[in-house]
Amino acid sequence: MTEMSRFLAGQIFSRFMRKNIQHLKQCKIRTFTTAPSTNLKDVLEKKIPEKQKEVIEFRKQHGNTKIGEVTVDQYVYEDSMNLIAKLPTIAAIIYRNLYRDGTSVGAIDPDKDWTWNFTSMLGFEDPAFTELMRLYLTIHSDHEGGNVSAHTTHLVGSALSDPYLAFAGGMNGLAGPLHGLANQEVLVWLTKLQQQLGGEVSDDQLREFIWNTLKSGQVVPGYGHAVLRKTDPRYTCQREFALKHLPDDPLFKLVSQLYKVVPDTLMQHGKAKNPWPNVDAHSGVLLQYYNLKEMNYYTVLFGVSRALGCMASLIWSRALGLPLERPKSFDIKHLKKLAGAA
Ligand SMILES: CC(C)(COP(=O)(O)OP(=O)(O)OC[C@H]1O[C@@H](n2cnc3c(N)ncnc32)[C@H](O)[C@@H]1OP(=O)(O)O)[C@@H](O)C(=O)NCCC(=O)NCCS
């Protein structure tokens, strides 16, 4: 990062924090005044017509304003801040409706941080879980922009779609098993392993299980990466957290044992360019330990975090006036020329 981009990032971040707090305060007022029932269906019934009006208005203005000036300052920035501020509330309402008794998520406490409010809305009180989620929400926010969810958000946004539409596109990408769903795949794989092999397993038994996975044409979930060529630092910091808070947890011990065995096996297999674990190899185990056991919800947590990275990038893309993104396309003549040169 150059000095200039560091300075600009600092400016955006401090503006983001100020705005975020304002939005959180607004959320508190709205909880009491406009939505006495927090049941998602009731809330949407009232909100959707209001939002539709806003969107129609937005689109009219959008078409009439200069992109570089007005879109960035008044719409993309504001929409992104709103999205980040409200996403935890929406995610928590979904969680409570699906997995708890559907009761209210309660009011936002503007004196507490984003994560504290999120875990409290989910209904968790253990401070250690909140600390884990601070780590989780930070490390899943985004790392280089080329992954499916961040890239899709950028792609959809590059057509000047609003941040909500762009982020929804990104979330559809996150749901794939090679991407955001991988942490769930890891748990399913670990459960199968435990069912087949029982509690204490030897390294040789693990090797055999891994080979069976590979021979059946499946990937070892939680290992490999499109860009990284070493252990994912996001894996390492979760491992450090686990070593501190749950060193004797049986599932964590299994994950640690796999860390010793999988990379060598993948190297022998000879396909994966990176045999080391990624972020998803660890996160599910930690969430299970703190009783967030509903695996289907894990990608939602990932999405709440990813909004931070995706929205920051979208704001930058508009601020820098980046063009519509499109892959190169070639006619047959050009393809023949390329094939001939190879
Ligand atoms: C992340 C991932 C999708 C990256 O894919 P990629 O960029 O194509 O990775 P590579 O270039 O190393 O792939 C080369 C080959 O190794 C294979 N490979 C990569 N990771 C592998 C793994 N964990 N287990 C088995 N095979 C693997 C690929 O499937 C590919 O096989 P192919 O040539 O038959 O198509 C891949 O490593 C993977 O599927 N990992 C497991 C899922 C996962 O953990 N996803 C979360 C990522 S953060």
From TrEMBL:
Alphabetically ordered keywords of this record: Transferase, Tricarboxylic acid cycle
Oligomer status and interactors: Homodimer.
Family: Belongs to the citrate synthase family.
Species for this entry: Octopus vulgaris (Common octopus)
The protein's annotated pathway: Carbohydrate metabolism; tricarboxylic acid cycle; isocitrate from oxaloacetate: step 1/2
Subcellular location: Mitochondrion matrix
Chief site of localization: mitochondrion
The protein's name: Citrate synthase
NCBIfam families with a match to the protein in the record: PRK09569.1
Alphabetical list of Pfam families matching this protein: Citrate_synt (PF00285)
